[in-house]
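User: quick one
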Amino acid sequence: MTSHAILNLSFLQTLVEVLATLAFALSGMLEAARKRLDLVGVYAVAGLAAFGGGTLRDILLDRRPFFWVEHATWLWALLALCTVAMLGLRSRHFELTERAVLWPDALGLGLFSASGTQIALNMQMPAIVAVLMGVITAVVGGVLRDIVCNEIPSVFRDHRPYAVCAFIGTWLLVLAQALNAPDWLGLAAAAGTTVMLRGLALWSDYRLPAWNPDPSPRRKPE
Amino acid sequence: MTSHAILNLSFLQTLVEVLATLAFALSGMLEAARKRLDLVGVYAVAGLAAFGGGTLRDILLDRRPFFWVEHATWLWALLALCTVAMLGLRSRHFELTERAVLWPDALGLGLFSASGTQIALNMQMPAIVAVLMGVITAVVGGVLRDIVCNEIPSVFRDHRPYAVCAFIGTWLLVLAQALNAPDWLGLAAAAGTTVMLRGLALWSDYRLPAWNPDPSPRRKPE
Amino acid sequence: MTSHAILNLSFLQTLVEVLATLAFALSGMLEAARKRLDLVGVYAVAGLAAFGGGTLRDILLDRRPFFWVEHATWLWALLALCTVAMLGLRSRHFELTERAVLWPDALGLGLFSASGTQIALNMQMPAIVAVLMGVITAVVGGVLRDIVCNEIPSVFRDHRPYAVCAFIGTWLLVLAQALNAPDWLGLAAAAGTTVMLRGLALWSDYRLPAWNPDPSPRRKPE
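Assistant: Done. Structure below.
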């Protein structure tokens, strides 16, 4: 690959992370507003939703600097986005925003999981670990958002394929690497498949099979 | 110590981590089922319960690779275990499984805490830090499981000796090191004591003294 | 600066961290008692509240050893403090303790956030990242305390200026560095401003502007 192509790929990867980040931040803001958090809570939950997944991936892979340290302007961008959204968003916009966010969020799922897997593969991680790192990158922001807001993470209980789409899609990146295909092809195939699967799931309203063997709640300790 | 003995010790340590891991994963599955999580939630909570403690210990000690990166096949084993358990477990099996799991879990408590303490001692950590690392290794998986499931961690509120057993047992490892006893002896004494104390606590239904000075709940902020 | 001054600064910084740590630990104990946690829970929540913020900062900055590893006696001090407090504190002392803790806590807010920012600046972090690290140092202990106790972190929802004071104050440290002022001056100005702002907020009972655009709770997934 020429250095020009590497530059473009790296630029594309950055662009991708930025777009996904905005959709994730917005999902954090909506949740924070629903829980009536204050100003600090809105910024914090939006930031966690946006940067939490990539940050945990980098901690696990012992990788520095974080995206938001290397590109610190994005912290300013997040502050600005939250402030503008707080001034502009009214409760009647919420449902609309939520539906409008579904698609960039699906894009983010594809792009984040693919880039996370790529990073782990480049560090010689085993295939299943690389795939897991991709899923973590895409999913953990939302998990932390929900934990801070005192909810069971929706990705663990809404029975909609989300993490599953990324889990399937990112294997194409592993396959591409095994076949010595160029990086951009693997990234595009993985991200594309994930986004397509997620789109299909949204469109068909598909539910994951439930495992509900236990009708009785846990007994509380006395 | 001969290289043969080192090999055996390291093999034993791996075997120990594997056994404990299975018991912890099962506790995660039961909790996930009680909370009616979906497929992804069951895998995630089982994984957190199984690998969360050791992973946090390694992050704190800045130690890589993680157990589940070095032995990535165990991620497949976890996926397989969860899938089989989901196909086979019915709600009427739950109470039985919970009781059956108590003993391998006690074994896990002893083995994980001892191996965690040993690792920290090998890195020249102070004694109290090494003991704390042992307790974290054994206990944090269950803590993360409960936090994700939106419960106060049961290890912090069920008034049964659990972390306390590991806290006491692992000091034997510190003692063994101070006396220049061989590693395997310290490990065996620490793990054995912890398992015995936990067994005793289960058998006698002992409760920790309660500290309940406050009859009134906290006032919520307006 | 002479080596003597450096010594004093470093001694002052340690002293500061110790004082703040005690106030934070006490806030953890009170919360643990309110939730009726057992012995282990009281120690754990007090420890998280005391050391959680600095530890997360050090994990993010990839910095070792942690404060509580380098000064492991402080783990003993925490154990002792908790034990004494559990023996001495009665429920009628709670409200008094809570009010008495507000001022050392404000001191801790100023000192922790300033020292956290200083550490990040010394590692050549961008200004906004350094300020964020300062806020994380001061605030995350309380966040973890509340998450473990199954509450939405009060710092994210009580509409009182807390993180905001530290956010403003720590910028003075960035300014001092840009002006090549000595470290102690920047630290004093930042910590002093933060404490003053927090004191002003407590005294005037000021509330942050609310963003409550949504009167309806989120629909639960079926």
